[in-house]
Design brief:
The chain is mainly alpha-helical. It has a domain of about 40 residues. Helix content is about 80%, strand content about 0%.
Amino acid sequence: MLRLPEVLLIAVYVAPTVWALSDILRVPTDVWADSQQNQALWTVIALVLPLLGPLLYFFIARPKLNETA
């Protein structure tokens, strides 16, 4: 059975990844193309780097997507 520290650790890794993936997949493909960002690459980054990937997405790719949207 999982204890509270393990549950919190899982939540810290899973929640940002799910949040980033939902945001990555929500943005239309033409916005990705206009901002010269690669949607598939950011999806892989968010999945492979559980905590760092979502942070990189929100600080690097997301501002560029907001500029073109």
